[in-house]
Design goal:
48 residues; 2 helices; mainly alpha; 90% helix
């Protein structure tokens, strides 16, 4: 396997893993916080 292919595979694997963590944690976080808290978090994220 070439160096380029290995590097691309690392990037893709890391992205898939990070997205998977977000998908698995989302239901837990949704039960912990009210919808209003997500709105406030989105507001601060958009300003930053």
């Amino acid at each position: 396997m070439s160096t380029f292919t290995g590097n691309v595979l690392k990037l893709v694997t890391g992205s898939v893993f990070a997205q998977g963590i977000g998908v698995l944690v989302a239901p837990i976080v949704a039960r912990l916080f009210a919808p209003e808290a997500f709105g406030v978090a989105a507001l601060f994220a958009s300003i930053r």
